[in-house]
Design goal:
This protein is of the alpha+beta class. The protein has helices spanning 23-40, 45-51, 126-140, and strands spanning 6-8, 53-64, 74-84, 89-98, 103-115, 120-121. It has a single domain (6-140), classed as Thiol Ester Dehydrase, Chain A, CATH 3.10.129. It has three helices and six strands. A hairpin with a 4-residue loop joins strand 5 and strand 6.
Length: 141
């Protein structure tokens, strides 16, 4: 299950010399989408700093199905694939689709949490897990 589609606004700097979406832009757009969702549910960078934790990527992979051109209208949706060990690790999937709902790319990330004091992977506080899970599930509705 995926969240409602959110429109992606492509910038000139997102394009490669062929006027296609540059491969690394998919990763940047997905990362920004994740942070926007967390922020909208109160899980801001300020909260993370106060609690001494931050998300950390363990794996990131993108499968490209169709090229995205400069003038294409694109949506991105986020899906929760797996939660492991009471929220210690999350697998999320970003789907890039056009306005006709054709899949353009699929980006999968494995995320864990870093304790900023110890610089080691750690289990986030239960309220953090709840906020992340609720932010995704409420969007899926």
């Amino acid at each position: 299950m995926f969240t409602k589609p959110h429109e992606v606004h492509l910038r000139w700097s997102d394009l490669d010399p062929n006027f296609h979406l540059r491969h690394s832009s998919y990763y940047d757009l997905a990362s920004q989408h994740r942070m926007d969702m967390l922020n909208s549910y109160g899980l801001t960078t300020t909260v993370m700093q106060e609690q001494y934790f931050a998300p950390v990527l363990l794996r990131e992979e993108c499968i490209f199905h169709r090229e995205i051109r400069a003038d294409d209208k694109i949506h991105i949706r986020l899906g929760l694939k797996e939660v492991i060990n009471e929220g210690t690790r999350w697998t999320l999937v970003h789907q890039f689709t056009n306005f006709n709902n054709k899949r353009m790319a699929e980006l999968t990330v494995d995320i864990s949490w870093l304790n900023l004091k110890t610089r080691r992977l750690a289990r986030p506080l239960p309220e953090i897990v709840k906020a992340l899970y609720n932010s995704i599930m409420s969007e899926i509705g």
